[in-house]
Amino acid sequence: MAETGISAHQNAVIHDRSDSEQVVVPWALPHIRLQVVARVAVCVLIAGCANDTAPPRVDPIATTAMAPLDLDAERELLDEFARELVAETQSAGGIVALRHGSGDPTVVVSGATGGEPPTELSETAAWHVASVTKSYTAALAVSFASQGLLDLDVPIERYIAFPRGETLTLRQILTHTSGIAGFGDVSDTSSAAMPYILDFERAYTTEEAIAAIAELPPLATAGTSTHYSNANYMLAGAILERVGGAPLGDLFAEHLFSPAGLRRTWYPTSGPAGPPAAVGLDDLGDGAVLASDALPLTSLLTLLGPSTAAVSDVTDLFRWADIVLRTRQLGDIDLSAMSVIQPGGYGLGVAGVTAREGTCVFDGCPANASFERLNLAGDIPGASTRVWYDPATDVTLLVYLNRNSLELDALMAAFLKRLSAAS
């Protein structure tokens, strides 16, 4: 198994945002450990549920390109937006990038890393992209289906032993319509993942991860409603390993990362290693933050891996967004099914964005919701990632902030409105 690049420390440095003084505390202090575990258990990506009564909606293909601004003017707008985001979210730093069509993106950087001492944040930084990993897992499933290696619409009992496997399909799992309960997210109301994540340095096997979710009580009958859950993608990853006959990281590298030209995207729990993830800030509440490398993420990454473990950077995320959200094609493989957004707000590894509610899969989408934009989103201790694609204007907007669990939809929508007005 590849090294995660994250090591434990005997002491943790706590930063109070209202005071420049650092407070160093023994990492073993129970109340600090429990605060961090609580944050980890809910920060991977928030979850919600919604009743699905309307037929699936497919987002429109781009028809009207937004006229690019003068490069200097666009960079000035982006720089202002980046500084606004860092200040608004109290992040240490962030990266904002914009691309028109398939052109070169404009990239701006604001602030510093979250480590101690802070260093200048670089536009070449890589970071944990959290639930953007779900898009890799879903794309691999679509790829295998196109090759006849599996069927998205047959009971998963054909591939793996799992409770209710005779009633669940891989498509339901990938669209969060399986009815499987939350695990390591806000819908994990019983904190089922907590004991596993608390064992920070433990590296879980795929079999142990599946055993951890096998007895979760179902939230709904499969195919009747949407309940966002990391457990869905944990199960999907196990199926893909069975079908592909190799660890998931190796399958990603062979079938996705290499053919897609993703040179700095990797899966830390298995497969070829890549650049280390940048250090960010984990919000402990009450104004206190903890450097994200103050605790090992080994248990979280190996337990929830197929839903959250990948690392990437700006260049690769734009390349991936172009493949998944714009052209919807990887070589001979048609990926358009990924952007078929279900009424509950999710496709296959891709979230839909409404004009009013934003990314509503987590809190519940209204009946007959219209999804105007597509979103690859993820949150993990020390990093928030959003990659929005607007088909109507053929614009892709990327935001990375080195602080987790941030509400960014309204800020991103407002920026795109300002950009449109200035064009």
Would you kindly provide a written description of the structure presented here, covering whatever features stand out?
With 423 residues, this protein is of the alpha+beta class. The chain has a single domain (11-422), classed as Beta-lactamase (3-Layer(aba) Sandwich), CATH 3.40.710.10. It is 31% helix and 19% strand. The chain contains twelve helices and 18 strands. It has helices spanning 30-43, 71-89, 133-146, 170-174, 194-198, 206-214, 230-244, 248-260, 298-303, 305-308, 314-327, 409-422; strands at 11-16, 22-26, 49-51, 57-58, 93-100, 106-111, 126-128, 225-227, 281-285, 288-291, 311-313, 329-330, 333-334, 340-341, 351-353, 373-380, 383-390, 395-401. The strands form six sheets. A six-stranded antiparallel β-sheet has the order 6-5-18-17-16-15, with helices on both faces. β12 and β13 (333-334) form a beta hairpin. α3 (133-146) packs across α8 (248-260) and α6 (206-214) packs across α7 (230-244). The longest helix is centred in the N-terminal third of the chain and has 19 residues, at 71-89. Mean pLDDT is 86; it is low at 1-63.
- Helix coverage percent of residues? 25-40%
The level-1 CATH class: Alpha Beta
CATH topology: Beta-lactamase
Q: In percent, how much strand structure appears in the residues?
A: 15-25%
Shape verdict = globular
Which whole number gives the mean pLDDT? 86
Q: Biggest sheet, strands in spatial order?
A: 6-5-18-17-16-15
Gap between N and C termini: 49 Å
Q: Quick one: how many beta strands?
A: 18
C-alpha-based Rg, rounded: 20 Å
Structural class by helix and strand composition: alpha+beta
Largest sheet: 6 strands, antiparallel
N-to-C order of helices and strands: EEHEEHEEEHHHHEHHEEHHEHEEEEEEEH
Number of domains: 1
Within CATH, the superfamily carries the name DD-peptidase/beta-lactamase superfamily
Low-confidence stretches: 1-63
At CATH level 2, the architecture is 3-Layer(aba) Sandwich
What is the helix tally? 12
